[in-house]
Design a protein that fits this description.
Number of helices: 12
Strand order of the largest sheet: 2-1-4-3-5
Structural class: alpha+beta
Radius of gyration: 55 Å
Largest sheet: 5 strands, antiparallel
Shape: flat
Strand content: 15-25%
């Protein structure tokens, strides 16, 4: 139903006016089609972070613009980094790509700065609570959405820790819901940001999106010092920039010989001891000269094996070494008799010290043997031989010989004992033969039945 104006003339509808003007209808159709056409753009939440893809109207978003996107923890401010060209063919939008919420204005950017300051306050309180509760973790960074009711907190810990006391305290104080996420050493350096030993900003915080795998082999290929202080970054891991030139070093080393290889040069044959990859020079230790020389890579000939084409200088050096060893051995042999002659002559008749063998008899056996010798009757000396003439004379004590004479049989041993006793006893007195150290077979109480020579 059409409403009549004040003058009473009927009002025309928009459809009727568009039908009357064909040019206006064409421009309106093109504008609606341009607005409805969507393109895939790439955005970053933080600098040098992962790129996420969203859909946006064509011709309204450009690289460097700020947009508001909807993520799992609320609306966040993001920066556009990639936009397809205007003349690029329109590809279908994937189903999992979500559209942006809106283009960010000055209010959104001011709100994002305010939430960043609030996140710094939350981070300070979390660090204080972690130290006070002795949780064994270190909060690294906190990130909030535009509304400030939800966010993410990164922490570093050597193992699984219970952070609930700290989290409950902070969430109750600031009325925010935080998602705790553990970060490794490299992620901590990216979140904190800083400058490395080169004097420039950290690559992982400024432009590098992925962490490359860096091994110790990369440092060895570049002939770098393996000192951890010189090849490690602020994160404590190997420098990521070692991988930037690794392929170039590998390509340049392909034309150089290996260290330890024998090569031929205009100065003579030698052994490679050092490489200079950037200058394409090789340090060689010559066989015919003790000096080391630096030879360009283009002047190095083919390697020569020692068994195929031996170097005369090496053969002569080996012969000289063997001759020197023979002369040294001859001098040692000649000096050996003189060293023994300088020593003073020792008496040859002096018997060597021999260790006294310990008797294998038990103490009780030795005591029984001693009691048996004391109970035996002793021959009475003639009158006038003793000092008082009363009682039997005691046997003179003899020191036991340390070395026994070697006897062939029992007969020769007894004969030697009788001769020794006769030579040492005074005239007219005869001594019983010396008994062996081993236990006698004669009974203890039985008297000696040997005949008396005086009879």
């Amino acid at each position: 139903m059409n409403h009549l104006p004040d003058d009473g003339a009927p009002a025309q509808s928009s459809s009727d006016s568009s039908q009357d003007d064909p040019a206006c209808s064409i421009e309106a159709t093109e504008t609606v089609a341009a607005i409805d056409e969507q393109v895939v753009i790439g955005i970053r939440i933080r600098e040098a972070s992962r790129i996420y893809h969203f859909s946006a109207p064509r011709g309204q978003v450009y690289p460097g613009d700020y947009v508001v996107v909807d993520r799992a923890r609320g609306d966040q401010l993001a920066r556009v980094v990639t936009v397809p060209d205007d003349d690029a063919s329109a590809n279908p939008i994937p189903r999992d790509v979500r559209p942006i919420v809106r283009l960010a204005d000055s209010d959104d950017r001011a709100r994002a700065a305010e939430q960043s300051e609030r996140a710094d306050s939350i981070l300070r309180d979390m660090r204080s609570a972690a130290v006070r509760e002795d949780l064994g973790l270190y909060p690294v960074a906190v990130e909030l959405n535009l509304t400030g009711d939800r966010g993410t907190a990164w922490f570093q810990a050597p193992d699984h820790v219970d952070f609930r006391p700290m989290l409950d305290e902070v969430q109750e104080q600031y009325d925010v819901q935080l998602h705790m996420q553990q970060a490794n050493q490299r992620e901590r350096a990216r979140l904190v940001d800083g400058y490395d030993i080169c004097g420039l900003r950290l690559c992982c915080s400024s432009w590098m999106t992925d962490f490359p795998h860096v091994g110790i082999r990369v440092a060895k290929d570049q002939d770098l010092s393996l000192n951890p202080d010189s090849i490690s970054g602020v994160c404590g891991r190997l420098l990521c920039c070692l991988t930037f030139e690794h392929e170039v070093y590998r390509e340049m080393r392909g034309s150089l010989p290996r260290v330890g290889k024998r090569v031929s040069t205009p100065a003579g044959m030698g052994k490679v001891i050092k490489l200079n990859v950037l200058q394409q020079k090789v340090t060689i230790s010559l066989d015919d000269h003790p000096q080391r020389v630096d030879v360009p890579a283009d002047e190095i000939g083919l390697a020569v094996r020692t068994e195929d084409a031996p170097n005369q200088a090496l053969v002569e050096a080996e012969q000289a070494r063997r001759e020197a060893d023979r002369r040294a051995a001859a001098l040692r042999e000649a000096a050996a008799p003189s060293e023994t002659a300088d020593q003073p002559d020792e008496p040859s008749d002096r018997p060597g010290k021999r260790r006294r063998r310990r008797s294998r008899r038990s103490q009780s056996e030795r005591r029984q043997d001693q009691d048996a010798r004391e109970d035996r009757p002793v021959a009475q000396p003639e009158s006038g031989e003793g000092e008082t003439g009363e009682g039997p004379a005691r046997r003179p004590s003899r020191r036991r010989r340390r070395r026994k004479p070697k006897v062939v049989n029992q007969q020769s041993e007894s004969a030697a004992a009788e001769s020794a006793a006769t030579s040492q006893r005074p005239d007219g007195e005869q001594r019983r033969p010396r008994r062996r150290r081993r236990r006698s077979r004669q009974r203890v109480n039985e008297p000696d039945q040997s005949p008396d020579p005086s009879e």
